[in-house]
């Protein structure tokens, strides 16, 4: 007999990686980590984070040392200095200021004196070199430092291109100023130049450094802004809580709050944890957590969510979830994990960047060789090679996908759309059919009295009074609906004596000295009490009706149903406006399902489906060529959510549904479904636009540079601006859904 060895335990480590300057860097770190046995790593350049799955026995120090040997630094997430990112931005700003202050006079001086010989003065070349030295060797130091690190590890990155371009420009200009400036030259787009005009490449060295530092500075700020959308979720969490113990209020750190503790929330304060209102009446602003714009009225027994804000009344809340188990903490954790995962299009970009830099270096060398072998002046071949090095830096390519994903995931979290990963965004874009589970998704999932029809001699209030008094002794869902309706209409309910539950039939009891019977038609028939003729019609559309009798006489009946959410019809209309097909999926009978479908405007109904068959229905739709999104909330929806191309679970649903889904819908408003699809569409269109620009830019610009049609200074400006354009384009997602609900 062969006994298979148990699988080794695997854990997940998150590292903060410093020193990466481009997508090629992240690809190198990822390859380095993946060479370790049993390790699977995903490194995200935009978030500067590595998510690593490692065997339980492998220590974190091994991973950190491996990253260090690849030329970068790493720390376990949570251990790093929180000011690191700001320090990097400040350092880039200082270098940028120095570069700009020197590059502007250097540019004016070198260009003017190079082109107008009569304005030259003795030592003008030396003055230009002195102005350029701080820019080339201090402001551009981050590029040179990264290049040296790469050389030590026999690799290259986009910084290699920049460093070589800047140093080559400076070296050529220095040589020209002291040894090779006796012959006139020729500039494409300008014409013949006087001897010594090659000093212009000092301006190129300083200008390129300034442009690239500006691009990297604003890129770093923008990336911090995009990540800040998710960091804002952390900021919502309360730091302290007013705990009620032994009748006294005491302020303690949030970490000391335990499940079951009572805590006090005063007007204007954030609710510290998820819980149930123990006492008090107030309105709660939940917009920061769920995206619902209308404050919710809460009273004793109502559920409240941590990080929502108490607006007016004093509340005493019993904690039901604290720490990492709160809805806010789970939202934040899922959103952070989504940042670390890569879309398939980003994996393609990583593979391209890994080979891009060596290819560009080869193209630059080939360009210089071809120009020299063709007999062209050395300065023209050198200018073309430098332009190739500078224009080819694919920073925009590396930022095209992750910045848009960060902004999209972050904005989704603010709108109550919790996207678990970029693959969910890609799936959303291709969906053409949306399957809606009925109970708990389209409907509230709670039984509600929708009609009270009294018989002759009784009023609606009397029917509710007698029925509510008897049903107060029952725990059935229908009984709870009756009691809720009675208490909403009446100031108080009388007591019941001799209560008795009648399983499968109803209940009985004595109320104010009168015998009251509440139940279905079978119960009344068995007791010889006549059933009203219109009673059967009340149940034809899927509603449940119960009869009420007082002293053996029918007092009336109540109609109870699981009501449709107010937002359901508008949500379905929005889905149809997006060109999507909708399907209602339910275990109810055809008549009940059709009534709900007609009410919300869904043309396709799949009724009588057993819980185990829901996944089969979804699979049949997929086999038929549909790209299916499943929206559900219950335990029985889990398999269907996992089977669908895109699973969307309501946040109030079961844990199994939430784990099976790709997107968690935090808002109770069902219009969050079309909003999620719009957001996915907008995000992916921005990603495609970014990639089209980045690829097109490099494909078009490198041949122009190799042919000598691009001045190196113009090449540097264009490359830097392309990165800023990509990041700025991605950050447009921050405004998604602010102005209107029109399709993106």
Describe this structure in words.
It is elongated, with a radius of gyration of 35 Å. It is 49% helix and 20% strand. The chain has five domains: 10-80, 2-Layer Sandwich (Alpha-Beta Plaits); 85-229 and 337-404 and 690-731, no CATH class; 240-335, Calcium-transporting ATPase, cytoplasmic transduction domain A (Distorted Sandwich); 415-443 and 565-680, HAD superfamily/HAD-like (Rossmann fold, 3-Layer(aba) Sandwich), CATH 3.40.50; 445-562, Calcium-transporting ATPase, cytoplasmic domain N (3-Layer(aba) Sandwich), CATH 3.40.1110.10. The strands form six sheets. A seven-stranded mixed β-sheet has the order 16-28-27-26-17-24-25, with helices on both faces. The chain has a six-stranded antiparallel β-sheet with strand order 8-7-9-15-10-13, with no helix packed on it. With 744 residues, it is of the alpha+beta class. Mean pLDDT is 78; it is low at 1-6, 338-342 and 740-744. Belongs to the cation transport ATPase (P-type) (TC 3.A.3) family. Type IB subfamily.
């Amino acid at each position: 007999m062969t006994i298979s060895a148990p699988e080794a335990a695997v854990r997940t480590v998150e590292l903060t990686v410093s020193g990466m300057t481009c997508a090629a860097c992240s690809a190198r770190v990822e390859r380095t980590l993946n060479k370790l046995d049993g390790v699977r790593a995903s490194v995200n350049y935009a978030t500067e984070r590595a998510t690593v799955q490692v065997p339980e026995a492998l220590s974190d120090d091994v991973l950190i040392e491996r990253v260090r040997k690849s030329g970068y630094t790493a720390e376990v997430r949570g251990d790093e200095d929180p000011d690191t990112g700001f320090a990097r931005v400040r350092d880039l700003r200082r270098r940028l200021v120095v570069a700009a202050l020197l590059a502007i006079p250097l540019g004016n001086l070198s260009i003017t004196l190079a082109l107008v010989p009569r304005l030259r003065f003795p030592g003008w070349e030396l003055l230009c070199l002195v102005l350029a030295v701080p820019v080339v060797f201090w402001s551009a130091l981050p590029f040179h430092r990264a290049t040296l690190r790469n050389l030590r590890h026999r690799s290259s990155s986009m910084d290699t291109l920049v460093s070589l371009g800047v140093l080559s420009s400076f070296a050529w200009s220095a040589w020209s100023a002291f040894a090779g400036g006796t012959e006139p030259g020729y500039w494409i787009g300008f014409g013949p130049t006087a001897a010594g005009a090659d000093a212009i490449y000092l301006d190129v060295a300083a200008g390129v450094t300034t442009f690239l530092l500006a691009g990297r500075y604003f890129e770093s700020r923008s990336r911090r802004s995009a990540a800040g959308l998710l960091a804002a979720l952390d900021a919502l969490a309360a730091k302290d809580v007013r705990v009620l113990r032994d009748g006294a209020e005491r302020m303690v750190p949030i970490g000391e709050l335990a499940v079951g503790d009572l805590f006090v929330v005063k007007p204007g304060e954030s609710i510290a944890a998820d819980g149930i209102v123990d006492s008090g009446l107030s309105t709660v602003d939940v917009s920061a957590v769920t995206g619902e714009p209308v404050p919710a009225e809460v009273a004793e027994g109502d559920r409240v969510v941590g990080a929502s804000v108490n607006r007016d009344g004093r509340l005493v809340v019993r904690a039901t979830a604290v720490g990492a188990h709160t809805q806010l903490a789970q939202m934040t954790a899922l959103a952070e994990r989504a940042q670390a995962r890569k879309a398939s299009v980003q994996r393609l970009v990583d593979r391209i960047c890994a080979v891009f830099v060596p290819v560009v270096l080869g193209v630059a060398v080939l360009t210089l060789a071809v120009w020299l072998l063709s007999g062209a002046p050395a300065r023209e071949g050198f200018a073309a090679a430098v332009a190739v090095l500078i224009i080819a830096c694919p920073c925009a390519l590396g930022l095209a996908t992750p910045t848009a994903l960060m902004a999209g995931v972050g904005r989704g979290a603010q709108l109550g759309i919790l996207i678990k990963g970029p693959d969910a965004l890609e799936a959303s874009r291709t969906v053409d059919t949306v399957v809606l589970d009925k109970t708990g998704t389209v409907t509230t999932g709670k039984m509600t009295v929708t009609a009270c029809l009294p018989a002759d001699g009784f009023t609606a209030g009397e029917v509710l009074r007698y029925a509510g008094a008897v049903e107060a002794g029952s725990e059935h869902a229908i009984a709870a609906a009756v009691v809720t309706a009675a208490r909403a209409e009446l100031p108080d309910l009388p007591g019941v004596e001799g209560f008795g539950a009648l399983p499968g039939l109803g209940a009985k009891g004595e109320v104010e000295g009168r015998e009251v019977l509440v139940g279905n038609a079978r119960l009344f028939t068995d007791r010889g009490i006549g059933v009203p003729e219109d009673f059967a019609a009340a149940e034809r559309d899927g509603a449940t009706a119960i009869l009420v009798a007082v002293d053996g006489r029918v007092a009336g009946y109540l109609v109870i149903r699981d009501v449709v959410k107010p937002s359901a019809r508008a949500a379905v209309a929005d889905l149809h406006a997006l060109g999507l097909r909708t399907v209602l999926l339910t275990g109810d009978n055809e008549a009940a399902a059709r009534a709900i479908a007609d009410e919300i405007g869904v043309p396709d109904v799949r009724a009588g489906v057993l819980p185990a068959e829901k996944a089969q229905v979804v699979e049949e739709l997929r086999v038929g060529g549909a790209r299916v999104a499943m929206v559900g909330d219950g335990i029985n929806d889990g398999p269907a959510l996992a089977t669908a191309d895109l699973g969307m679970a309501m946040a109030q649903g079961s844990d199994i549904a939430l784990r099976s889904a790709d997107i968690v819908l935090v808002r109770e408003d069902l219009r969050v479904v079309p909003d999620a699809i719009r957001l996915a569409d907008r995000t992916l269109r921005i990603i495609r636009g970014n990639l089209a620009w980045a690829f097109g830019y490099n494909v078009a610009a490198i041949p122009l540079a190799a042919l000598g049609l691009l001045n190196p200074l113009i090449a540097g400006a264009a490359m830097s601006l392309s990165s800023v354009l990509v990041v700025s384009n991605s950050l447009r997602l921050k405004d998604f859904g602010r102005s209107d609900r029109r399709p993106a």
